[in-house]
Amino acid sequence: MKLSLKFFVSVTLIVLCYSGVRAQYIFPENFNAAKQDTLTQGQNADDEGNVFITVTPAVKNAIFTGEGAVGYTVKLKNAYKKPQEGKVRCFVTTEEGVKIYEDSINVKIDKKSTTRYHFKIPCKNPGFYKIGFGFNLSLYDDTVKRVFGFNPKNITAIQHIPDDFDAFWKASRDSLKKIPPKYKMTLERALSINGQQVYLVEMQSWGNVTVRGWLTIPNERPKKIPVKYRLPGYVVKMEPSFDDKDFAVFNFNVRGNGNSADAIDTHGEYNLYNVENKDEYVYRAVYMDCIRGLDFLCAQAAMGLDTSKILVDGASQGGGLVLALAAMDKRVKLVTCEVPLYTNFRRAYEITALDPQSQTPVGMLVNYVRTHPSFSKEKLFKVWDYYDPVNFVPKIKCPVLMAIGLLDQFCPPECSFATYNVLKNKNKEIWVSPNKTHEVDDLYYTYQYLWYQDYFRMY
Q1: What is the rounded CA–CA span in Å between residue 31 and residue 16?
Q2: Which one of 212, 305, 401, 409 has the fewest beta carbons within 10 angstroms of its own beta carbon?
């Protein structure tokens, strides 16, 4: 499905004012904080100033395809009162730090002027590469880091699907069905503002524990209204939505998150809880929570929910959850996932392990293996093979929109793209934000909004 570019552009300025719920992220970082020079005693006033750097890929989203060189332009604006001389160095490495390219250019920038320099980087193998630009000038030193992709649709994910994968998840679902859901909805009058009704939702899930969420329904709505089902990031607290009046929105807290925090005590180590046992691992229960939340929505047709139009959305951990959910349950009709966590887990582990100081969720698992000699990474992989979204996605039949940030250290772009490539559904799209870490740019949400409307014919 391709949205009309003309239509997309014509409504962008209007929809940018739409303040839909944004995905919640953890620890986003800024790679390139501005460097400010200050005068010290004895310095000449001409030494006061700055150099403003703009690095621009030849392709807007830094995803290069075809054959030939990868192109970048560096613009330097000299705000000093004297010329700047020195070198601009470009270097490119693989994720593992293997250098594939290095070059430098001698530069001279007149005072109060702007110059541009071009680099052509030869690439052969599909993948994602780290590119850096070092600036060593008379009065200014800095480094700018970026990431680009080269023919990423040719990246192959090596799947390790256990022989009993389908049987494992069928048995899980069958066990969930035996647990009476005991749905309970409480109208929260104090929260029901701006023409919307907000309900606290409670239900029984895997292990007979209570999990909760928030259902928001606009007062003015068609006889049947589509449903947006949102799943949480890593230990993120989901709150009621108030700014999306085109959908009934169900913000669901799986166990250990938000108002479902009391459903499990992981002793502050959420994704390590029972990690050595695939049958008791925390995410088995979490995946079943997601299905139980879907059960709840499909039981509410009498409230005017259009259960034939349920989309699921999630970022980070939530992005991985929505992929697994859509694969297991055909009641999901659309999927949007942003910076999905844990995808292509084996490769994500290897990339994350390159940084011993990583504090990401995958980094926590890497560190667990390091500090538990009896539990090797091979044993961890044999557990995670049951939970890796890459092993679920071939079963997804509905349209999928994925969004990633190229500077993401939580969810390596290589792993997200490899998972995207495994999707067999032809109705799939991927959005790339080249200068974002564990987030995506605001324009994506404009596109996402139009994407929803187009598929559900909400005109």
Answers
A1: 26
A2: 409
Kindly report the average pLDDT of the chain as a whole number.
Answer: 90
Residue 77 CB-density burial (10 A; 0-12 exposed, 13-18 middle, 19+ buried): middle
- What is 50-154's CATH number? 2.60.40.10
3-state SS of the chain: helix, strand, coil percent to 5? 30, 30, 40
State which amino acid sits at residue 256: G
Q: Where are the domains of the chain?
A: 5-23+158-456, 50-154
Residue 229's identity, in one-letter code, is Y
Q: Residue 335 and residue 331: Cα distance in Å, rounded?
A: 11
- Does position 455 have pLDDT exceeding 60, yes or no? yes
26: DSSP letter? S
Q: Which amino acid is at 455?
A: Y
Burial class (CB in 10 A: 0-12, 13-18, 19+), 138: middle
Retrieve residue 328's tokens.
């297991």
Distance separating alpha carbons of residues 258 and 255, to the nearest angstrom: 8
DSSP secondary structure, 98-118, as one string: -EEEEEEEEEEE-TT-EEEEE
Tell me the pTM. 0.89
pLDDT at position 39: 33
CATH code given to domain 5-23+158-456:
3.40.50.1820
Are the CB atoms for 62 and 432 separated by under 8 Å?
Answer: yes
Give me the residues paired with residue 404 across strands.
432
Residue where the block lists tokens 């859901």:
181
Residue 415 pLDDT exceeds 80: yes
Cα 128 to Cα 136: distance, rounded to the nearest angstrom: 26
Q: Which helix (H) or strand (E) holds 431?
A: strand 428-433
> Residue 24: what pLDDT?
34
DSSP state, residue 343: T
> Parallel, antiparallel, or unpaired: how do β-strands 63-64 and 141-150 relate?
parallel
Greatest CA span in the chain, whole angstroms?
Answer: 79
Question: Which residues sit opposite 91 in a β-bridge?
Answer: 102, 132
Distance CA 421, CA 410 (A): 19
Q: Are 345 and 365 in contact (CB under 8 A)?
A: no
Reference 419, options 446, 442, 396, 398; nearest CA is 396
Six token digits for residue 262: 């009391």
Which residue shows structure tokens 């909805």? 185
Tell me which amino acid residue 163 is. Answer: D
